[in-house]
Specification:
By secondary structure, this protein is an all-alpha fold. Helices cover 63% and strands 2% of the residues. It has one domain. Strand 1 and strand 2 form a beta hairpin.
Length: 177
């Protein structure tokens, strides 16, 4: 599977994905986000942030549900045959209705910690899907793209959530989730 010029829309052998392939990719992404959110949420609960961890877990169980409907289903991640204006409409719809996107808030610097945590889980899922390092992608792509202030609170939250999510528990504590 390749990425095309429409912002990473999956294309198989130069064709638009079938509905079944599109569904499989969407469900796989949501499952990766859910798994990351469960792990991060449980680890935060273990560290004494029980309410926050529970709320994060609840959020990842409805993550990207909007992609199953309307313009998002019809045009997001369907391949290069999608007209640019339709793709932009679907992207805007998704970003403006999903709190884990900086565009929903008007920038990362305005995001609350729970939305940042879900965003990190989403970024982790994308890093798994595309075989990229999460930390490198954040520093090389996300920081400039979203104009993230590396001295700001949101960047500190991003780093904390990445550290907790990627922590090697076998080195530290066998009882840790």
């Amino acid at each position: 599977m390749n990425e095309d010029a429409n912002g990473g829309s999956p294309v198989r052998n130069g064709r638009t994905l079938s509905a079944e392939d599109h569904l499989d990719n969407l469900v796989r992404h949501i499952e990766l986000v859910r798994d990351a959110g469960l792990l991060l949420g449980k680890r935060l609960m273990h560290e004494g942030e029980a309410d926050f961890g529970r709320l994060l877990i609840a959020r990842v169980f409805v993550h990207d549900a909007s992609k199953f409907f309307g313009a998002e289903w019809a045009f997001l991640h369907r391949g290069s045959a999608v007209p640019k204006d339709k793709l932009e409409l679907a992207i805007n719809q998704h970003q403006q209705t999903n709190e884990h996107h900086p565009e929903y808030w008007g920038g990362v610097d305005k995001m609350p910690d729970i939305a940042v945590a879900e965003m990190v889980c989403d970024w982790y899922a994308r890093s798994q899907e595309f075989g990229t390092g999460l930390r490198d992608w954040i520093d090389e792509v996300a920081v400039p793209r979203f104009q993230i202030d590396k001295t700001g609170q949101q960047y500190k939250w991003i780093q904390k959530f990445v550290d907790v999510l990627l922590e090697d528990v076998f080195v530290h504590d066998e009882d840790h989730p």
